[in-house]
Structures are given as C-alpha cells and as structure tokens.
Amino acid sequence: MTTAVASALDASVLVLNKYYAAIRVVNVRRALSLVYRDLAEVVHVEDGAFTGHDFESWREVSQARAGYQRHGHDWIRCVRFELAVPRIIRLLIYERLPRQSVKFNRRNIYARDSSRCQYCGSRLPTSELSLDHVVPRSQGGKSTWDNIVCCCIRCNVRKGGRRPEEAHMRLITKPVKPKRPPAITVRLTSEKYASWKQFLDNAYWSVELKE
Questions:
Q1: Per-chain mean pLDDT for the chain
Q2: What domains appear along the chain, each with residue ranges and CATH number?
Q3: Rounded Cα–Cα distance for residues 114 and 123 (Å)
C-alpha cells in the first residue's frame, strides 16, 4: 500500500444518522465498510445541494470525476478503478442521536484555546504551553472548563499562585465548556471539509471525534 493511499484511508469522514444529524467522525476504512455493506450511503455535497450514493453509484461518480475534477478529492487506487474518498456518509437505519459530552482533557483545552496563551496571546507549539488554573488551587480553584486555560510558560511563571487581577494580568477570552468537541472547529478550517459545515449546528449537535 502506498503512503498516499494509506493517508487517504486514514482521512476523516463525518457520519450522519438517518435524519441527517451529525453523530461522529470515523476514518475512511470504517466509512467505506459501512457503505459497501449497505449500512450507509455516501452524501455528496455540491453547490449547497446533496445527493446520496450507494457503493456502486459512488464508484460511477468517482470514475466520472477522475478525468476532470481530481483536485476536489483524495483518491484511493483499487485494482480496476479509482475511488474518491467520501467526506460524509449517512447511516440508513440508525435513528438515535446519542447524548455526548465533550471530554475534559488537555487536547480539547488546547484546541478550544487554539494553542494560544490566554494572557499574552502568543500562539505556540504545545511543548511550549502549559495549563493554568485561573483561580489557583491554593485559593480553592477547581480543575474545570471555566477555570483552566492555555498559558505560555513565561506568563505562568509571572502569574504564579495568584488570580489574574492580583498579577495585573487579563484573560483574552473567558474560558467556557465547548458545546461540541473543539477539534471539530479546527478541522473545519480545512477546505476539504467545508461540506461538513451545514450539518454541524452546534446549537443542537455534538460530534464525537475519532481517537
């Protein structure tokens, strides 16, 4: 298997339930397995409209686009044909919209804060960032979404065991719990996932990202 094919198979695919509600993200291997077994269909979005395709129909669409619209897709080369990597699939029998909570972990905090120090605004590699308790634990501060922020090492040292106002520092953004996993927002900055946007209304849905 070539590096390009392996990379394409590891790309992300948004999964919708039967009623077009976003429920999770899987890799291409899992998505194509569901489509091939007729448990899901490919949802193709173009100019604001979308159409559904089973595996054979999507193979035909892929063959048609291979000759004139390759730049809009990632591709998987099979023995007898090429297959465009789908961006969205819809489950054909799954109806329930599961309740999900955003995991409180370092990755999601960094993603929520865009890997930016919430005191000086510097965007840095994660190796140069730490997490800061806005209200220090020594003053009763808890490890919660609204009391933890990304902080560069310099600002962390400057703030020490004080509240921001005590250190004459100010938060750039008030920390809150995201309504959906913040990594999905980072993902949407990539043009290849632009078709996801109309299915991700964070007033209603929360998408579980693959690990």
A1: 81
A2: 3-99+181-199 (no CATH), 106-159 (1.10.30.50)
A3: 8
